[in-house]
Specification:
The chain is an alpha/beta fold and 124 residues long. The chain has helices spanning 4-14, 17-31, 48-54, 68-77, 112-123, and strands spanning 38-42, 60-65, 82-84, 99-101. It starts with a helix and ends with a helix.
């Protein structure tokens, strides 16, 4: 498992950079219902994809990541919209967002039980 605190500075380049982020954001945005006004990006990492979500007119985006170094980079990309937090216990009230994304997160979780916990938190 990567140490995301140490990998933050080189993470984007090692994962496909801007082209991959463009493709991921476009795919996710195409799935959002037209009435979506608020979006939570869980496991936002460096904010490379989150920034693209935030560029969509009329969409208020919040990113959350558990790794300080990743969240710090995301905060530079999406100022005022990034929160440090655990995807297993999201620091938001129930039904706070119209939609939730978890781009490139679930495959990193330890096991099915942890994945269930994170998905349940996203649904909450």
């Amino acid at each position: 498992m990567l140490d995301y605190g140490k990998e933050a500075d080189r993470y984007d380049a090692s994962r496909g950079g801007e082209p991959r982020a463009d493709a991921a954001a476009a795919a996710v945005l195409s799935l959002l219902p037209g009435a979506t006004r608020t979006l939570l990006d869980v496991g936002c990492g460096t904010g490379l994809v989150t920034r693209r979500f935030a560029d969509r007119p009329g969409l208020r985006v919040t990113g959350v990541d558990a790794t300080y170094a990743m969240a710090r980079m995301a905060a530079r990309r999406v100022p005022g919209a990034i929160v440090l937090g655990d995807s297993r216990r999201l620091p938001f009230p129930d039904a706070e967002f119209d939609a939730v994304t978890a781009v490139w997160l679930l495959h990193l979780l330890a096991d099915q039980e942890e994945a269930r916990t994170v998905v349940a938190e996203c649904a909450r």
